[in-house]
Design a protein that fits this description.
Length: 183
Protein backbone atom coordinates (compact mmCIF):
# COMPACT_ATOMS: atom_id res chain seq x y z
CA UNK A 1 0.00 0.00 0.00
CA UNK A 2 1.40 3.42 -0.95
CA UNK A 3 0.15 5.99 1.53
CA UNK A 4 -0.48 9.60 0.63
CA UNK A 5 -1.99 12.44 2.61
CA UNK A 6 -5.53 11.78 1.46
CA UNK A 7 -5.40 8.78 -0.88
CA UNK A 8 -3.66 5.43 -0.85
CA UNK A 9 -2.66 3.25 -3.78
CA UNK A 10 -3.43 -0.41 -3.12
CA UNK A 11 -3.73 -3.69 -4.97
CA UNK A 12 -6.42 -4.44 -7.54
CA UNK A 13 -8.97 -6.79 -5.99
CA UNK A 14 -11.51 -9.04 -7.72
CA UNK A 15 -14.32 -7.40 -5.75
CA UNK A 16 -13.68 -4.12 -7.61
CA UNK A 17 -15.08 -5.55 -10.81
CA UNK A 18 -18.53 -3.96 -10.37
CA UNK A 19 -16.99 -0.50 -10.07
CA UNK A 20 -14.70 -1.11 -13.05
CA UNK A 21 -17.66 -2.22 -15.19
CA UNK A 22 -19.58 0.92 -14.19
CA UNK A 23 -16.65 3.26 -14.90
CA UNK A 24 -15.38 1.76 -18.13
CA UNK A 25 -18.84 1.61 -19.66
CA UNK A 26 -19.46 5.30 -19.00
CA UNK A 27 -18.81 7.44 -22.12
CA UNK A 28 -18.34 10.50 -19.91
CA UNK A 29 -15.21 8.80 -18.58
CA UNK A 30 -14.11 6.75 -21.59
CA UNK A 31 -14.02 9.84 -23.87
CA UNK A 32 -10.71 10.61 -22.14
CA UNK A 33 -9.34 7.06 -22.46
CA UNK A 34 -8.31 4.82 -25.34
CA UNK A 35 -11.16 2.35 -24.70
CA UNK A 36 -14.31 2.85 -26.71
CA UNK A 37 -15.81 -0.65 -26.94
CA UNK A 38 -18.29 -1.86 -24.33
CA UNK A 39 -16.42 -3.46 -21.44
CA UNK A 40 -17.80 -6.93 -20.78
CA UNK A 41 -17.65 -8.75 -17.47
CA UNK A 42 -15.70 -11.49 -19.23
CA UNK A 43 -13.04 -9.08 -20.51
CA UNK A 44 -12.78 -7.39 -17.11
CA UNK A 45 -12.40 -10.73 -15.30
CA UNK A 46 -9.75 -11.78 -17.78
CA UNK A 47 -7.87 -8.49 -17.33
CA UNK A 48 -7.81 -8.91 -13.53
CA UNK A 49 -6.85 -12.60 -13.84
CA UNK A 50 -3.97 -11.77 -16.21
CA UNK A 51 -2.47 -9.04 -14.04
CA UNK A 52 -0.35 -11.58 -12.17
CA UNK A 53 1.38 -12.60 -15.43
CA UNK A 54 2.16 -9.08 -16.62
CA UNK A 55 5.80 -8.10 -16.23
CA UNK A 56 5.44 -4.81 -18.07
CA UNK A 57 2.69 -3.18 -16.04
CA UNK A 58 2.08 -2.31 -12.37
CA UNK A 59 -1.50 -1.46 -11.45
CA UNK A 60 -2.98 0.09 -8.35
CA UNK A 61 -6.41 0.89 -7.00
CA UNK A 62 -6.92 4.43 -5.69
CA UNK A 63 -8.70 4.36 -2.34
CA UNK A 64 -9.63 6.84 0.35
CA UNK A 65 -9.14 5.37 3.83
CA UNK A 66 -12.04 5.77 6.25
CA UNK A 67 -11.63 6.20 9.99
CA UNK A 68 -13.19 2.79 10.71
CA UNK A 69 -10.46 1.02 8.69
CA UNK A 70 -12.62 0.53 5.60
CA UNK A 71 -11.80 2.26 2.33
CA UNK A 72 -13.64 3.88 -0.54
CA UNK A 73 -12.52 2.84 -4.02
CA UNK A 74 -12.45 5.91 -6.30
CA UNK A 75 -10.25 4.95 -9.24
CA UNK A 76 -7.28 3.09 -10.57
CA UNK A 77 -3.89 3.95 -11.97
CA UNK A 78 -0.62 2.37 -12.95
CA UNK A 79 2.67 2.38 -14.79
CA UNK A 80 2.30 0.55 -18.07
CA UNK A 81 4.47 -0.75 -20.88
CA UNK A 82 7.54 -0.56 -18.68
CA UNK A 83 10.70 -0.76 -20.74
CA UNK A 84 13.17 -2.38 -18.36
CA UNK A 85 16.26 -1.76 -20.52
CA UNK A 86 15.68 1.94 -21.13
CA UNK A 87 13.91 2.40 -17.80
CA UNK A 88 10.75 4.23 -18.77
CA UNK A 89 7.06 3.61 -18.34
CA UNK A 90 3.73 5.17 -19.18
CA UNK A 91 1.39 6.53 -16.54
CA UNK A 92 -2.35 5.88 -16.72
CA UNK A 93 -5.05 7.04 -14.32
CA UNK A 94 -8.81 7.30 -13.98
CA UNK A 95 -10.80 8.65 -11.06
CA UNK A 96 -13.87 6.59 -11.93
CA UNK A 97 -16.17 7.91 -9.20
CA UNK A 98 -17.06 11.20 -10.82
CA UNK A 99 -18.03 13.04 -7.64
CA UNK A 100 -14.44 12.50 -6.48
CA UNK A 101 -12.91 14.19 -9.54
CA UNK A 102 -11.52 17.69 -9.35
CA UNK A 103 -10.83 17.47 -5.63
CA UNK A 104 -7.08 16.93 -5.87
CA UNK A 105 -7.18 13.15 -5.47
CA UNK A 106 -5.93 12.46 -9.02
CA UNK A 107 -2.96 14.79 -8.62
CA UNK A 108 -2.03 13.15 -5.34
CA UNK A 109 -2.31 9.66 -6.88
CA UNK A 110 0.04 10.68 -9.72
CA UNK A 111 2.50 12.09 -7.17
CA UNK A 112 2.51 8.71 -5.41
CA UNK A 113 3.02 6.95 -8.74
CA UNK A 114 6.00 9.18 -9.55
CA UNK A 115 7.60 8.51 -6.18
CA UNK A 116 7.04 4.77 -6.65
CA UNK A 117 8.25 4.77 -10.26
CA UNK A 118 11.44 6.67 -9.53
CA UNK A 119 12.33 5.55 -6.00
CA UNK A 120 11.09 1.95 -5.89
CA UNK A 121 11.11 0.73 -9.49
CA UNK A 122 14.16 2.83 -10.43
CA UNK A 123 12.72 4.16 -13.67
CA UNK A 124 14.48 7.10 -15.32
CA UNK A 125 11.53 8.57 -17.15
CA UNK A 126 7.75 8.53 -16.88
CA UNK A 127 5.59 9.60 -19.76
CA UNK A 128 1.97 9.80 -20.80
CA UNK A 129 -0.32 10.91 -23.56
CA UNK A 130 -3.47 12.91 -23.05
CA UNK A 131 -6.03 14.47 -25.33
CA UNK A 132 -5.73 18.22 -25.83
CA UNK A 133 -9.31 18.77 -24.62
CA UNK A 134 -8.63 17.01 -21.31
CA UNK A 135 -7.90 20.22 -19.40
CA UNK A 136 -8.29 18.62 -15.99
CA UNK A 137 -5.67 15.97 -16.77
CA UNK A 138 -3.26 18.45 -18.39
CA UNK A 139 -3.45 20.77 -15.37
CA UNK A 140 -3.01 17.95 -12.95
CA UNK A 141 0.05 16.51 -14.78
CA UNK A 142 1.68 19.93 -15.12
CA UNK A 143 1.20 20.50 -11.42
CA UNK A 144 3.33 17.46 -10.53
CA UNK A 145 6.09 18.38 -12.99
CA UNK A 146 5.27 16.78 -16.34
CA UNK A 147 6.27 18.92 -19.28
CA UNK A 148 4.80 18.94 -22.75
CA UNK A 149 7.20 17.21 -25.13
CA UNK A 150 5.16 17.05 -28.26
CA UNK A 151 1.79 17.12 -29.92
CA UNK A 152 0.36 14.65 -32.39
CA UNK A 153 -2.00 16.69 -34.51
CA UNK A 154 -5.50 15.30 -35.06
CA UNK A 155 -4.39 12.02 -33.58
CA UNK A 156 -7.69 10.94 -32.02
CA UNK A 157 -11.32 10.93 -33.09
CA UNK A 158 -13.55 11.60 -30.11
CA UNK A 159 -17.15 12.86 -29.94
CA UNK A 160 -17.33 13.40 -33.68
CA UNK A 161 -14.14 15.44 -34.03
CA UNK A 162 -10.40 15.00 -34.42
CA UNK A 163 -8.31 16.20 -31.51
CA UNK A 164 -4.59 16.62 -30.91
CA UNK A 165 -2.84 14.33 -28.47
CA UNK A 166 -0.27 15.82 -26.10
CA UNK A 167 2.84 13.85 -25.17
CA UNK A 168 4.21 14.63 -21.71
CA UNK A 169 7.17 13.36 -19.74
CA UNK A 170 9.16 13.82 -16.55
CA UNK A 171 12.69 12.61 -15.82
CA UNK A 172 13.87 11.18 -12.51
CA UNK A 173 16.42 14.02 -12.18
CA UNK A 174 13.70 16.65 -12.71
CA UNK A 175 11.46 14.98 -10.16
CA UNK A 176 14.30 14.82 -7.58
CA UNK A 177 15.11 18.49 -8.18
CA UNK A 178 11.44 19.46 -7.60
CA UNK A 179 11.37 17.35 -4.44
CA UNK A 180 14.48 19.12 -3.10
CA UNK A 181 12.96 22.54 -3.78
CA UNK A 182 9.64 21.56 -2.14
CA UNK A 183 11.35 20.56 1.15
C1 LIG B 1 -7.63 13.47 -15.04
C2 LIG B 1 -7.91 13.08 -13.60
C3 LIG B 1 -7.10 11.87 -13.22
C4 LIG B 1 -7.47 14.26 -12.69
O1 LIG B 1 -7.75 13.93 -11.37
P1 LIG B 1 -8.69 14.90 -10.51
O2 LIG B 1 -8.66 14.37 -9.12
O3 LIG B 1 -10.01 15.02 -11.16
O4 LIG B 1 -7.92 16.25 -10.67
P2 LIG B 1 -7.34 17.24 -9.56
O5 LIG B 1 -8.45 17.76 -8.77
O6 LIG B 1 -6.24 16.55 -8.83
O7 LIG B 1 -6.68 18.37 -10.48
C5 LIG B 1 -7.34 18.90 -11.59
C6 LIG B 1 -6.88 20.33 -11.82
O8 LIG B 1 -7.46 20.81 -13.02
C7 LIG B 1 -8.23 21.97 -12.73
N1 LIG B 1 -9.38 21.95 -13.62
C8 LIG B 1 -10.44 21.15 -13.56
N2 LIG B 1 -11.32 21.44 -14.56
C9 LIG B 1 -10.75 22.45 -15.26
C10 LIG B 1 -11.15 23.19 -16.38
N3 LIG B 1 -12.29 22.92 -17.03
N4 LIG B 1 -10.33 24.16 -16.84
C11 LIG B 1 -9.15 24.41 -16.20
N5 LIG B 1 -8.74 23.75 -15.13
C12 LIG B 1 -9.53 22.78 -14.66
C13 LIG B 1 -8.60 21.86 -11.31
O9 LIG B 1 -8.96 23.11 -10.79
C14 LIG B 1 -7.34 21.28 -10.72
O10 LIG B 1 -6.36 22.27 -10.57
P3 LIG B 1 -6.20 23.05 -9.17
O11 LIG B 1 -5.96 22.03 -8.14
O12 LIG B 1 -5.05 23.94 -9.43
O13 LIG B 1 -7.47 23.76 -8.94
C15 LIG B 1 -9.42 12.79 -13.35
O14 LIG B 1 -10.19 13.95 -13.54
C16 LIG B 1 -9.96 11.69 -14.24
O15 LIG B 1 -9.85 10.53 -13.93
N6 LIG B 1 -10.58 12.06 -15.38
C17 LIG B 1 -11.21 11.13 -16.30
C18 LIG B 1 -10.24 10.11 -16.89
C19 LIG B 1 -9.01 10.77 -17.44
O16 LIG B 1 -9.06 11.83 -18.02
N7 LIG B 1 -7.86 10.10 -17.24
C20 LIG B 1 -6.58 10.59 -17.73
C21 LIG B 1 -6.40 10.24 -19.14
S1 LIG B 1 -4.84 10.84 -19.76
Amino acid sequence: MLRGERVNLGPIKREYIESFLKWFNDPELTQYLTSYRPMTRMAEEEWIENLKNREDTINFSIVIPNEDGSEKLIGNCGIHEINWKNRFGEIGIAIGEKEYQNKGYGTEAVELLLEYGFETVNLNRLELCTYAFNVKALNSYKKVGFIEEGRKRQHVWVNGKYHDEIIMGILAEEWRERKKIKK
